[in-house]
Structure formats: structure tokens, C-alpha cells
# Entry
Amino acid sequence: MRVWSAERVFVKGRFERDWALMVDDLGIIQAVGPRRQLVSKASQVIHYPQAAILPSFINPHHHGFHAVFRGIADQVSSYDELLHRLMWPLSRVIDIDLFDALYQISFAEQAISGVSTVTEFHYLHNASYRDGHKPALADRIIEIALAMGLRINLVYGFFDQGMSEDTEAFIEPMNVSVNKFEQLLQSYGDNPMVRILPGIHGLEHTSSEAIIAAGELSKKYSLPLHVQLAERESELHTSEVQFGTTPLRALDLMGLVNERLVVINGTLLDDGELELMKTRDVQTIICPTASLARGEDAPNVYGLLKSGIPFSIGSDSVCSNNAFSPLDDIKLIEFLQRSQQSSFNILNRQAAIGTLWELATTLPAKMTNCPAGSLMPGAPADFFLVNIEGPSFRPRWNFSTEAFMNQLVFGWGPQVSLLGLVVNGQKVVNQNLLTHGSIQKSYDRLEQWSEAFLRTVEKNTQETPEIQSETTAS
# Structure
């Protein structure tokens, strides 16, 4: 048995003084309590006298391969241009070496941000079903996460519409997706570090047959069904044309609006749809920074709070949310609500939330069927250690729960020192450095790709003749 202790441990919504976690060899918490009561039973005691132990973050929605578009994604004029000029065409040329590099880099960023569990919404299939020699990309994502010591929830995205050169990197026939999903369940079902979930990448990209098939898998295996929904006006138009109604109501016609459904983003859901979600115990994942970065509406947090719909915070695309910080997103939605409602302390007043920390821990755990999120006996030892000696956490208000929690959330930033991240009882980040191998080769591979991309852009620019207007031509 190993004991981890600190000046404060966040347990059951309280910052307990000089408490500890007793963790067994399988990485499971066996006891939580005062350090003096646990040290006599331990083979090793690891104490941090100027730190707090808190449950690590769970990211419930992430697209790791989008890291290849960072920087250049911010140079286009619209989200449609991002899709048609960058994402659709460039995704077709992501080979396996670049793919591996992208996921090692994006998962490393998650880890050093305090994220122990990444929920990867996987929909880049790159026509592997056509070539038996191509590796299955979903398996590679899982193995990369495990090699880095992270917990992984893989949402297998159904995406069977739009059979064209533009979207061929993402298209996969429905029967192939169903078979692959069940293969993944069989391969990783006994691994406590892995969860496999079905997902729908929007009504624009998925046939009604595939949507229903994903829903049947959710029902058959009692799993959450993650659906990206109602994010853009074009999706509302598609839903009206195909189904004669709005996106959530279209799902209801298919019998999928129930307690297993998790709506992702949903920034354009109307009041009637929110009421339907409340009635059917539907949960949602919002990604405030990414939504605003794409020029979309901010999440309707007021509507979610008013309806009592549980929500959690995700990163979404890592090319539009380059530095994911759950606490920064929580701070963002709190301040947006203050501006809209002319009132303070909006989120803290919600009984359904508990503490602000739950938005990034226990709530996303529930929405991903993940056992992590809290520091209790029987739960996996997933936590991080934060230095609480710095100026950002003063005054401490005697560690009063709400006051000091506000200090943590609203004082979070680059000046905060994370001393380490522990996942399943193993330290995977120490002083901002990964403990499981080096990713230097991944950096090198991505630099090679970006340099080749810039050379191609420069060549195309030089070969394109200048087009002069009548007013500028000599």
C-alpha cells in the first residue's frame, strides 16, 4: 500500500487538512482519512506539505488530430473555409506516422493540463476498411493513451454520409462502424483504463439508419450515446429538409432521446428542446471556448441552468481551443452569465452542480461511464497536486469550501504550479514533464510536416499569376 498526502485533500466537497489517500497496487483507493491514521499501514508515504490533492480533470469531448491545423486554422475567414480548405483535404494525407505524432502531442498537452481521462471523439477513419493492411486508427489512439499512462474513453463516431472526395477521410459504411465498435468492446472491455462508447458526428454526416444503429448499440450495452448536435445553422436546415423538424426532435422520432443520450454543444437548441431534454434526463457537454472560437453562439448556460439539465465542460477541437483549461472555461461561462444576468455567483447557486470542480470531474465521469472523478474508496487514484503557496491562493479564507474553490477556479492560470499528475496510482506527469517516455520524435515529425506544407503553399502562391482589377492594372 502507498499513501499520498498533502496539506489539503479535496474530499466530499471539503478541503481536509493533512489527510491522505491509501492506494493499492492496482491503483485503487482503499482508504481516505487523516494521514496519521493511514501511514502505519503503508509501505511508502509520499507527502507534499505545501500542496493540495484534487481529483484530476476528465475531458469529455476531444479531437486530437485537429492539432495539425493549429495556427493555420486561425487564418481562414470562416468555419466553412476551415472545413473545405483545410480539414477535409488535409485529413486525407495524414499518414500513420503523422497520426501517431499528433495524438502523442495532443495527449501530452492534456496530461500536463491536469487531465487524467481523455474522451476522444474518433471519426477520422481514412478508409482503413478498404485496405486490410492499413492499421485501425481507433486502436492506435487507445494504445497511445495507455502508453502515456492516461485513461481513455473512445467515442467511435458514426459518419457514413457525404461520400465524396472532400470527406472521404471520415466516411465509413454503417456496417463497418458497427463491427468495429463491437470489436473494440471485445478487445478492451476488460481493461479498466478504457471505455468504448458509440457516437454520432451530427445529422449532416450520418444517415438515419446509422444513427439508429448507434442508438441500438447504446441500448444493447447500456452505454451513453454521444451526439454532436445543433451547432450550426446549416445543420438546422439539413434537419428540416431531411426530417421536417429540428435536430433533437429528429432524434426523438428515432426513439433516441432518453437517459443514455449526451448532447454535445447544442448551442442552437430551442426552449422546447431543452424542456424535452429535462423531461427525458438527457445530459450535455458544452465547449465554450471552442464554440466561440468557431464563431458560433455561446452555450446556452442560462437555459441549461433554468431547465436543470446537467452539463460538463469539454475542449472539442484542439485547433480552435489550443490550450484546454477546464477552469478557464468554467470562469468564462460564469462571467458570461454575470454579464447577461447582471448578477454574481451564478454557478455556485446551482444545487445540481455542487462545487465548481464537479463540472470538470464527477459530471463528465457520469457522462462517459467512467469510474474516476472523485477521491473515494473504491475509485481509481486519479488526482493531481497543486502548489498552494503562491500569491494566487491568498487569502485562503481558512480553506472554506466555496471561498477557496473560487480562489482555485478564478485564480487559475500560468502562474499555478502543478507538481504532478497521478493516474491509476502512477505518476504520469512530474513538474510539467511526462514520466512515460519522450515525445521528441513526434515534435520532429510534426515540424517536418509543417515545413513541407509551407513549402507547398509558397510554391502554389508563386505559380498563381496576379489578377489585377481594372483600377490597378497599368
